[in-house]
């Protein structure tokens, strides 16, 4: 089956979650009649791991291969954290497909040597112990005080993270550690861009880090969302959806 949709929103989830983190956004877009696609990365959500090593580029190609049969000509990707790295790669290699973009809680810089070391140490620990310790760390680091008080939200996040496979997590950690620096790309991005940070994101991508993306892209819009840390679309969907719809109405 082919569905010919000129433009669709593409949701790109954070690590180590799944497309379910955008469930509120999907509901709103369905109500508004805006086409969208949401894909799990290999080894996360409903997707099994891929054989061989992963890179950000391979993840991008995997995502685009999943939607290639839909006949979509252009995309407005919405990427949280790791999803932002996929958006940057799309600009590098599939620029004509990108009509606009929403970067959420992400950064343009590559990992420092210290950050790479931590990722590789985490990979080895996941190999030895499994993923339980990582899930506890992510739940602590990625959420705001307001989200931590919401047991229903915390439970949903835990369930999403527990679906991630050990193999998928290990391979993706390496892909994140070895990703390229995207600061050189910022001046070349010439489509409408919205950049969103969580005001309470102190441990992963603080607002001042996220803001640099907007500062490097001519005409980019920058917003901060309260009661959110690393996962604004999930933590404060009401405020995020308002920003997203306003942006999509201008782009589409």
Summarize the entry for a quick read.
The protein has 252 residues and is α/β, with parallel strands linked by helices. The chain is built from eleven helices and six strands. The chain has a six-stranded parallel sheet with strand order 2-1-3-4-5-6, with helices on both faces.
Notes on the structure:
With 252 residues, the protein is α/β, with parallel strands linked by helices. The chain has a single domain (7-251), classed as Rossmann fold (3-Layer(aba) Sandwich), CATH 3.40.50.1820. 48% of the residues lie in helices and 13% in strands. The chain is built from eleven helices and six strands. Helix 2 (56-67) crosses helix 3 (82-93) and helix 5 (132-142) crosses helix 7. The longest helix is centred in the middle third of the chain and has 17 residues, at 113-129. It is globular. The mean pLDDT is 97.
- CATH superfamily, by name, is Alpha/Beta hydrolase fold, catalytic domain
Q: Class by helix and strand content?
A: alpha/beta
Q: How many DSSP-defined strands?
A: 6
Shape summary: globular
Element-level helix/strand string: EHEHEHEHHHHHEHEHH
Major sheet strand order: 2-1-3-4-5-6
CATH architecture: 3-Layer(aba) Sandwich
- The span between the termini is 24 Å
Overall structural domain count: 1
Rg is: 17 Å
* DSSP helix fraction: 40-55%
How many helical elements? 11
Average of the residue pLDDT scores: 97
- The residue ranges in which pLDDT falls below 50 over 5 or more consecutive positions are none
What is the CATH C-level name? Alpha Beta
- Estimate what percentage of residues fall within beta strands: 5-15%
The profile of the biggest β sheet is: 6 strands, parallel
CATH level 3 topology: Rossmann fold
